[in-house]
Amino acid sequence: MSDKDKIIKEITDSIQRINSKFMLLKLITEAKYEYDKYDYEAGRRSLIEAYLIDKKSPVVLRGLGCINQYKGKYNLAEKFFKKALRYSEKKEVEYTLLGVLFYVQNKLDEAIKYFNLAIDSNDDYDYAYEGRNQALLENHIRISDLQDSLKNMF
Q1: Distance of CA 75 to the CA centre of its chain
Q2: What is the per-residue DSSP string for 15-77?
Q3: Burial class for 40, CB neighbours closer than 10 Å (0-12, 13-18, 19+)
Q4: If you ran DSSP here, which 8-state letter would residue 86 be given?
Q5: Whole-structure pTM value
Q6: Average pLDDT per run of 10 along the chain, which is 154 residues long?
């Protein structure tokens, strides 16, 4: 391959990468817009298209996790959130999403664990504190209710 051919190939590859990134951004933006309009099926389709472009995008993986959580497919949501965790630079987001996922399933101890991991990753991340505090409060209420039930038994 001549030097000229190498340069042309590098330029072509660069243009293809830029085009892919543009398409990915467009699809993510569409998915967010659709999600905000509560059109989850259209959002899911956009995210799947984006996933086919970049299977390692934390934003796409988070979105797919959120859509599956909304649909009640908690195991699949967890898989997407954990896959996003592998590729994310902002791990507190994924940890918080996992905390919320376990919170909605009423698995409060597991939720608290993930909220704490989010706080360990970024101690300025308010959403993790809010989630943890809510899970702790509900856990405390559950224990109080149990204690009251036991008192009434005797």
Answers
A1: 13
A2: HHHHHHHHHHHHHHHHHHHHHHTT-HHHHHHHHHHHHHH-TT-HHHHHHHHHHHHHTT-HHHH
A3: middle
A4: H
A5: 0.78
A6: 75 70 76 80 88 92 93 96 95 96 94 95 91 86 68 67
